[in-house]
Write a structure and sequence with these properties.
The chain is built from twelve helices and 15 strands. It has 359 residues and is of the alpha+beta class. Helix 6 packs antiparallel against helix 12.
Amino acid sequence: MGGAAFDQGVADLLASYRAIPPQATVRLAKKTSNLFRKRAANPHPGLDVSGLDRVISVNPEARTADVAGMCTYENLVAATLPYGLAPLVVPQLKTITLGGAVTGLGIESTSFRSGLPHESVLEIDILTGDGEILTATPTNEHADLFFGFPNSYGTLGYSVRLRIELEPVKPYVALRHLRFTSIVDLQSAMDTIVTTKSHDGEPVDYLDGVVFSAKESYLTLGRQTDEDGPVSDYTGMDIFYRSIQQKTTDRLTIHDYLWRWDTDWFWCSRAFGAQNPRIRRWWPKRYLRSSFYWKLIGLDQRFDIGDRLNARKGLPAGERVVQDIEVPIDRTADYVEWFLSEIPIEPIWLCPLRLREPA
């Protein structure tokens, strides 16, 4: 992105802030969102963050990156992978922004060893409510703001620039899909792997799970490797979550592994018919991604398509919900078994989390 472009982006941001009338609601003026619920239209222009959507610089020696707050993880990963580096946690959808993952919550299959995205942040420039940009670090005079900012959902300000740690990654990820016929057994295996970071004598670099039913669930174990060999492609006709049921081992490039869930928005693309082979064959590949499904959701919300169809069937209006919850690992089986019995929606994604620094 470069310093000059970033400086111009900051200037545009501050100008847009000053143009918002007193007492008006302050929101980001951005084109994408990973929030599911419909929001009332804002009558006032939002904060112009259009110039804050790229990586500013990568320092491969220090293994750090300076990143504008509205940079998506798709752009962040594209900038770091050429150096053999990646963020410590890469949330599963391409349009999630670094700033959003820090001020909200982000999680992925490295979270059992690397925690949450905010734990790899070294310093943050934050636009506060009075229009001032403060640089917060763990040790400077704004340390309270630094430690209070994660999970604050914009109540303390918006991130303008973040300096984050990066970790070395290898070109490929070798996968093992372990099948379980008991959620209790899956819970026990997941607990052991989180503690030991290994399984059957092999290191585990990535760990997540999928529950299809009480009698069919899987843990997927990923190991970084630089060994050349054939790799799978789940950006076209093949669907990643179905491969978990069909294969015991697999290999992906590191890039395709990081975005393995985005092509089909986990399994939500089936709601749009995109998993029907006859439709998928003609579905433009560039639209097999979560951001396009969000546009379809937006059209549904704008024109109340789903509610109108329900009304014709005599059904009430509905609300579509995507909900992440946290459960202590020793209650995982209890919760999943209850959920499958009382709210029979499947599959369910499981992603273990252990903070890097519990204090």
